[in-house]
Write a structure and sequence with these properties.
Shape: globular
Number of domains: 2
Number of helices: 10
Number of strands: 11
Bound molecules: L-homoserine
Largest sheet: 7 strands, mixed
Oligomer: single chain
Radius of gyration: 19 Å
CATH architecture of the largest domain: 2-Layer Sandwich
């Protein structure tokens, strides 16, 4: 095999209460990466499509390049390759854009080299792509993009990643308002110290969310989707956040919150019709604020990366 094209799904990190420890993958959108082996020892990014020229072509500075460079070094190979990155989602959107690129890249090179590493061994390489993108190697985007479904990062040191079950009828609505929030900025504004009373609410909700996923208890999932630590601070970066969130709940969504570091907002619903109605309601609020947006409706993606050709 000389070349391969991989799709890796976008992700909703945090899922409200699970800052940096819970995320899930969606079917749509996602990034695509084509990797071609060449008879030269260097890793090169040939082209990036869809980034409006904003991402670096230097592979050591690019979230798709660095996981591939580190991977080849790790397996002791001087194999070279050429990369084409197709950005299929907006930058700075809260959809795990950099994570999808990193996952697609490292998954592609592992396939081309004959799968010397197991899927879970690819995670630290993708996490380094994330570190490059925003200064923090969190895994709640790369984890679900790589594994599919819901993923829990039980521990970062040592890394302990648990795949969680997905209830059958769960639908996700994501609205991406046309404003940009850099993950680095959205992390820098967070308080570094917490009140014990807030921590108690938060870990109760994390446990409730995980329990609800295991038992397909939609009401428990919904009432656990409450974030008293991160959301109150980050909401100020998203005009109309609470009105948008409430409009999704009024449409019948079981819960809603900021997708990753924002500005996208997501909602979970028990059926597709409600998910669509939530999307329409949310879009009306942003339109009223003269903010354009697009809506993605999707089931939870169970698979992670997909070989396209
Ligand atoms: N957990 C990360 C954060 C996800 O909220 O900063 C970034 O998309």
């Amino acid at each position: 095999m000389e070349s391969i094209k991989i799709f890796a799904p976008a992700t909703v990190a945090n899922v409200t209460c699970g800052f940096d420890v819970i995320g899930f993958a969606v079917d749509n959108p996602g990034d695509e990466v084509m990797v071609k082996l060449v008879n030269k020892p260097s890793v090169k990014i040939n082209k990036i499509v869809g980034d409006k020229g904003r991402l670096p072509l230097d592979p050591s500075k690019n979230t798709v390049g660095i996981p591939i460079i580190n991977f080849l070094e790790h397996i002791g190979s001087d194999q070279g390759c050429e990369i084409t990155l197709y950005k299929k989602m907006p930058l700075g959107s809260g959809l795990g854009s950099s994570a999808s690129s990193a996952v697609a890249g490292v998954f592609a090179i592992n396939e081309l080299m004959g799968n010397p590493l197991k899927r879970e061994e690819l995670l630290p390489f993708a996490m380094e792509g994330e570190r490059l993108a925003c200064g923090s190697a969190h895994a709640d985007n790369v984890g679900p993009s790589l594994y599919g479904g819901f993923v829990l990062i039980r521990s970062y040191d040592p890394l302990d990643v648990i795949k969680l079950p997905t209830p059958e009828n769960l639908y996700c609505t994501i609205i991406h308002p046309h404003i940009e929030v850099e993950t680095k900025d959205a992390r820098n504004i967070l308080r570094k110290q917490l009140l014990l009373k807030d921590a108690i609410i938060q870990w109760g909700n994390v446990a409730g969310l995980v329990s609800g996923l295991y038992t397909s208890d939609y009401d428990l999932i919904g009432r656990s989707m409450q974030d008293v630590i991160v959301e109150p601070t980050r909401a100020i970066l998203i005009p109309g956040f609470y009105a948008v969130k409430n409009s999704a709940l009024q449409a019948g969504a079981i819960g809603a919150g900021i997708s990753g570091s924002g500005p996208s907002i997501f909602a979970l619903s028990k059926d597709e019709k409600t998910a669509r109605r939530a999307g329409e309601n949310m879009q009306v609020i942003f339109s009223g604020l003269a903010i354009g947006s697009e809506v993605y409706i999707s089931k939870v993606n169970p698979l992670g990366p997909l070989i396209m050709d």
